[in-house]
């Protein structure tokens, strides 16, 4: 067992945000030149409820306040992903091997004008709406299985016939 495998997973929450057309919000991170897109997600504060953390992360990353979303579903359990070895030693001060996330499917009740990436601590440089079936092809490779698991969790609520 490597030293990385002995590290704990960082508690986190993720958001699959659907617009009225059934498309998913994705964005590109500021801190990378990769063409990868991701859904909003982030670590939970100590003692923070996963749903409260998901709503906080959504607002911090996209400017979308909780009043403009409704919760449709929550993952049945935590979904895990491991960082690649070259990132595990650098991200989060090397304290975690990856994240254990509770995911939420949210319906967006606002308009595109309500999205504001110019937040106090910007994380994203661009955003768009994507077909759910596109998600595993948009994310960095080490999160592909995670995104497939999120799609499986919320399959009953998604129209996945758009791309493939």
UniProtKB/TrEMBL annotation:
PROSITE patterns: NUDIX, NUDIX_BOX. One of its GO terms (molecular function) is bis(5'-adenosyl)-pentaphosphatase activity. A motif (Nudix box) lies at residues 42-63. It is an enzyme of class 3 (hydrolase). Pfam families: NUDIX. GO terms for biological process: nucleoside phosphate metabolic process; ribose phosphate metabolic process. Its EC number is 3.6.1.-. The keyword Metal-binding does not apply. Gene3D superfamilies: Nucleoside Triphosphate Pyrophosphohydrolase. Its cofactor is Mg(2+); a divalent metal cation; Mn(2+). InterPro entries: Nudix_hydrolase, NUDIX_hydrolase-like_dom_sf, NUDIX_hydrolase_CS, NUDIX_hydrolase_dom, RppH. Belongs to the Nudix hydrolase family. RppH subfamily. Accelerates the degradation of transcripts by removing pyrophosphate from the 5'-end of triphosphorylated RNA, leading to a more labile monophosphorylated state that can stimulate subsequent ribonuclease cleavage. This is RNA pyrophosphohydrolase. It comes from Alterirhizorhabdus solaris. The lineage of its organism: Bacteria, Pseudomonadati, Pseudomonadota, Alphaproteobacteria, Sphingomonadales. The gene is rppH.
């Amino acid at each position: 067992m490597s030293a990385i495998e002995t590290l704990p997973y960082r508690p986190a929450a993720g958001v699959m945000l659907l617009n009225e057309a059934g498309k998913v919000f994705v964005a590109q991170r500021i801190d990378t030149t990769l063409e990868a897109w991701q859904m909003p997600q982030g670590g939970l504060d100590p003692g923070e409820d996963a749903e409260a953390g998901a709503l906080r992360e959504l607002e911090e990353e996209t400017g979308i306040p909780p009043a403009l979303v409704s919760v449709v579903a929550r993952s049945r359990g935590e979904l895990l992903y491991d960082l690649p070895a070259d990132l595990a030693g650098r991200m989060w001060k090397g304290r975690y091997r990856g994240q254990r996330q509770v995911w939420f499917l949210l319906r967006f009740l606002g308009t595109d004008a309500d999205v504001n990436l110019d937040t106090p601590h910007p994380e994203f440089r661009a955003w768009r709406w994507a077909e759910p079936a596109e998600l595993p092809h948009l994310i960095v490779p080490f999160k592909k299985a995670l995104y497939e698991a999120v799609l499986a969790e919320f399959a009953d609520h998604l129209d996945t016939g758009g791309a493939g």
